[in-house]
Design goal:
Blueprint: H1 2-6, H2 9-14, H3 21-44, H4 47-70
Helix pairs in contact: 3-4
Length: about 70
């Protein structure tokens, strides 16, 4: 889960956002938490379940991000 979280830091760095300690912590925390959940799906079912859950999360996150940008 930690490797999953660390793997998201280059995308954060390339986003142009100021890399504050709080932003890096938030990114690592949420990606590690979700990584544990995706890992549990992988362990219980298979790789496809983990990939679909990851993709589904991003599919739900996109509308929420767009809505937040409008507010």
């Amino acid at each position: 889960a930690i490797l999953f979280a660390l793997g998201h830091l280059p995308a954060l760095a390339s986003s142009g956002a100021e890399l504050t300690q709080a932003l890096v912590f938030r990114t690592l925390f949420w990606n590690a938490t979700l990584g544990l959940m995706f890992g549990a799906l992988f362990a219980r079912f298979d790789l496809e379940a983990a990939i679909l859950a990851h993709a589904g999360f991003h599919a739900g996150l996109l509308p929420a991000s767009l809505l937040a940008a409008l507010i």
